Amino acid sequence: MSGNPLLSVQGLGKAFGALRVIQDISFDVREGEVLGILGPNGAGKTTLFNLISGDLATETGEICLSSEKLTNEPPHIRCRKGIGRTYQIPKPYGGMTTFENLLVTAMFGAKLDEDAAHRSCAAVLRECGLADKANRRAGSLTLLDRKRLELARALAGNPKLLLLDEIAGGLTDQESRELVDLVRRIRERGITVLWIEHVLHAVLAVASRIIVLNFGEMIADGAPQMVIADPDVRRIYMGLEA
Amino acid sequence: MTTLPIVNVQRHTLSSRIAMSLSVVALMALIAMPWWADSGWIRWAVELSCYIAIAQMWNLLAGYAGLVSVGQQAFIGAAGYALFVLCQKFGVNPFLAVPLAMIVPAILSVPTYLLLHRLDGPYFAIGTWVVAEAVRLVTTNLDFVNAGAGLTLRVMTQYRLHEREVAMTILCAILLLVTVGGSYWLLRSRHGLALTAMRDNPVSAGSQGVNVSRLRFLVFIAAAVGTGFAGAIYYMAQLRITPASGYDPKWASISIFIVMVGGIGSIEGAIIGALLYFFADRFFSQYGAIYMVVLGCLTLFMAIYARGGIWGFVSSRFDAPWFPVGRRLVLPNDKGT
Question: Of B222, B220, B216, B218, whose CA–CA distance to B197 is shortest?
């Protein structure tokens, strides 16, 4: 871990009408770090991802990747700069095959030529356990495979920063363990990861730092064991008395 | 950095090779029609070619770019009028005027898109219809183009019937090459991959590196030019154009019927739909209103029960695409199809 901030979020704010969903959030993420993001439903976690990936426009604050300001850049530029993401509810290209889903990101996100994209996507499919479903229409995949596809598609863009939005939801313990191993391998390749997750044991197994959101505000930021022991986090997120 | 192993990707199938060979034969037969078919058949071929081209462009627009337009008649009429004006007012050779006439829909499409691109779904559709009506009203009030009375392509009388038929069939072959062949080439390219992704999920495509707004803009211009090309040929064959015929909203209805019934989001669907509409129009249009009601009900039936149209139904049962645009990864022990 080099320790340089890869992502810098400063004073981020977003409202939907009168409802403020993100309020003055600031944090840095260092290169190679795996940052877990926790919080109850409606805390603003996915909105935070949408602001970082550019799917939603920011109202206040700044987002920088490798010191380059991305606040006003559209999603496709942010992807090309190195931000890959998955969606909480998978959004595959249903009429295309699994392999073609990855090719889009490889050829437009990572800007690979056709041959290089073919090789890279075949390797990513193998890594994510989807090689045998390469020619299946994405719309016909099971939920588990769709989640794998979300991750594989984001990896095909050769990202510097990977935003994972609840990819462990609905998985069995064995599948969760496999996923954690995969995220570890992704980190070992030097990719920085932001991971929103409700499956606590999965995210705690790999995250080096955790932040917790509640009603759009950041209520905790620190090492996993310290954050989990925080009385406010235990009360708000876990429903436990301090 | 490790070198990744070479992988094999299949882009053609046996069915596509057969379809490609048949397409070449059909194009040759079309070009040779003046030597083996009578004038009535050639008129039919021109009409069918125009239907296929217009539907293919609408398919690209609505089926891939997600831009449902009910105002493509603006480009048909604009190109038709441009052709007549170039020939009648400026003395340009009519067969040279056809490609020149495409400049007008290309120019018209730019402000149209810039005006409408912030609108979504039904609002965009209504916007395109309003633009088409505005262009029709402007044309109706322009004395330069003989206002509402329209124009006649008198220069065509200087050519013998056989010369006209040779030129028309060659133009139709070029039209099909540009619109159908062009769509096939585009959809097989890397931009086609992006277009197909956009068709399935534009939000996701944007976050995976696809510049959705630029691609939509380019598709809108390309569809306007292709539609205009067909319009210029159609009205050249008719030898007459008026604002009511050139900007007739029936062109939008025809496009929607052909693509919805044939199969939206596929090249094959637009061809099947165009053939179906063409033969229905030939043999059942004498029934007037009842015929229109049946066509409308068929479109509605397809929209509710068979979203993929006839081609969607066929392709879900038989993996034999005529114009495959996908990429099949050949896996170990996989001999492909």
Answer: B216
Contacts of B227 (CB under 8 A, 6+ apart): B53, B54, B57, B58, B72, B75, B76, B79, B105
Q: For residue A137, list its beta bridge partners.
A: A97
Q: Which of B20, B44, B52, B15 is nearest to B269 (CA)?
A: B52
Q: Burial code of B53-88, b = ≥16 C-beta within 10 A, e = fewer? A: bbbbbbbbbbbbbbbbbbbbbbbbbbbbbbbbbbbb
Whole-angstrom Cα Rg for chain B:
21
Record the tokens describing residue B252, joined without a space: 């939008």
Domain range list for chain A? 91-145
CB A155 within 8 A of CB A162: yes
Which residue among B194, B205, B328 places its CB closest to the CB of A135?
Answer: B328
The structure's pTM equals 0.90
Give per-residue pLDDT as tens, A82-129.
Answer: 999 999 999 999 999 999 999 999 999 999 999 999 999 999 999 998
Does position B63 have pLDDT exceeding 50, yes or no?
yes
Chain A, 67 to 126: residues with Cβ < 8 Å from chain B are: 74-76, 78-80, 85, 87, 91-97, 99-101, 103-105, 107-111, 114, 118-123, 125
* Nearest CB to A75 within list B193, B207, B329: B207
Residues of B in contact with A52 (CB under 8 A): none
Determine the distance in angstroms separating the CA of B5 from the nearest CA of chain A, rounded to an integer: 6
- A153: contact with B, CB 8 A cutoff: yes
Residue of chain A minimizing CA distance to B192:
A104
Task: Kindly tell me if the per-residue pLDDT of B287 is higher than 60.
Answer: yes
Counting as low any pLDDT under 70, the low residues of chain A are 1-3, 241-242
Q: Per-residue pLDDT for B241 more than 90?
A: yes
A50: closest CA of chain B, how far (Å): 10
